[in-house]
Amino acid sequence: MYVEERMYTMVIGKAAEYFRLYEEFGMKPQLRHLPHMVGYYLTEMGPQNLVVHLWAYDDLNQRDRCRAALAADPEWQAYVPKIRPLMITQETRVMKCAPFFVERLKKMLAAA
Q: For residue 97, which of 4, 29, 61, 108 sits 20 to 30 Å off, Cα-Cα?
């Protein structure tokens, strides 16, 4: 399994607006296409104004298919221009689960 970590540095003071727009316009299409939201966070300590969200995939082919379907979704396409002015930078990491963690992650995702 793989977990994708996306980190957005937000314009100072704009995280609440980002979350509002995401909840209203972005979450529905994203959850329609991406299989497993592992978490969605705002930093409390450390680098400030950093939104971090995590997504799990069975493999990288599934990730490619899901991301392509999301990018093609008209609802998602209408949402993205709403949030871009709130963001300064974006970083993405894709991490492979440690062998001993795969089953634990699967159980966590099944419980959600």
A: 29
